[in-house]
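Need tokens for this chain, all 220 residues.
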Amino acid sequence: MAQRAPDSISIQLPDGRSIDATNETPGPAERGELELVEVLRPRRFDACPICGDPAATEKEHVPPGSLGGKVMTWTCNRCNNDFGSRVEVDLLDWYEGALTTWFASETVRGKRKTGRLLRRWTESGEYVLLPAGKSDDIYAEILAAGNVEMEYDTPEHKRWSIGLLKCVYLALCIKLGVIEGGWADQVRADLLAARDAPSRSEVPASEIARRLHVLRGFGP
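Here are the structure tokens for all 220 residues:
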């Protein structure tokens, strides 16, 4: 199972102060309890439940393994791999609160793209950017310049919502069998349009995915 980024962190500064930050966005939040209704068991189909390819030989995590999901069914090679590069990257960034950023300063020519940066919030509403993974030494030089320009991209809603739609659809298939009917046909069409897009930037929006009401949970 892939290791998820931490939701909270405490940073000890050289002067003795500490910065405590969490993934919980400042502002009003809905409080509630979750009730476990049923535990789904892995289920295999005669063909890929998304596109119908009879060569459903790839283990499929629901939700994606990067979010802590387990192998719950099997899909074809294209549905298993292409969704990962097209939409599930944005789904992970949305879930973990990650940004794609570019830094520039007078000491370095041009803008430099960083790796993933995790945005975490303090109790006072200030945000902290934390590198996730390796970081180039050039960024320390840019930040040391003092006068720094930063640009950033947030996870694209039309992509991460399709990643969620795929999770919902596969979970329903695992529970009920491959779903038939107009709604299911449209879901599969929207999923395949995303899978077959020439690039991430050309993934079309899905009206069904756009209407999904999603809550991000914090804490246990």
